[in-house]
Design brief:
This protein has 249 residues and is an alpha/beta fold. Helix content is 40%, strand content 16%. It is built from eleven helices and eight strands. The mean pLDDT is 97. It binds 1,3-dihydroxyacetonephosphate.
Amino acid sequence: MRRPLIAANWKMNKLIPEAVEWVAGIQRLLPGLPDAEIILAPPFTHLAALKPHCKNDSLKLAGQNMFWEPQGAFTGEISGAMLKSAGCEYVILGHSERRLFFHEDDAGINKKISSAQADGLKTILCVGETLEQRNGGQTEEVVKSQLQGALEGIEDKGDLVVAYEPVWAIGTGLTATPDQAQEAHAFIRATLGSILSPEASEGVRILYGGSVNQDNSRELLNQSDIDGALVGGASLAVEKFCAIIASLN
Ligand code: 13P
């Protein structure tokens, strides 16, 4: 019922020529891979250059962030409409690196989601606990409050995706075990049921992110509430990223 979604988050990596080469590479490889929605979130500066290389909608583009205001004197920020006009269908919001390094909070993320919806962008909302919070038994409390804060007053129009990214698993080589991830995803789905509606929560895709690679992806993606992956480091090499897509089989 939920189409698998595999997304590459390049973060602040790659220059435009290597990005174009990666896109050409994935276009060659995708026809041999299982059906899934495939998304690439490159740095903003690469979007317009990559768009003409994304043929047949088989590879969709996402922004890694945006500001909630539609335009104006906000040096260094970009709007949802700008992402849209550069060819994006999605935007990643609330990534833990934005929360940690740029002090983003749930209220701001909430405004960004509203603004993304107004601009016709789909949102990939990231949530997840730190190691300290997990060790303190606070995982559910933290994730619940992130979801409630970010989604307050938001209606799902079929344009919401949630990514569970435990902070301790990002870029560390430590992955949540399939059981740990499934438990968190089931909790997220139940929480979405009370925030949105039970029907809407059944349709929301919940991605796992945090040191996903071709060796651990199959087992993670096999879990009933894991609908895809948000991949950082292992998305930089096109063959490694495609091996993750292939593990959907
Ligand atoms: P890694 O796959 O490098 O752990 O990054 C995960 C992530 O933050 C994706 O958004």
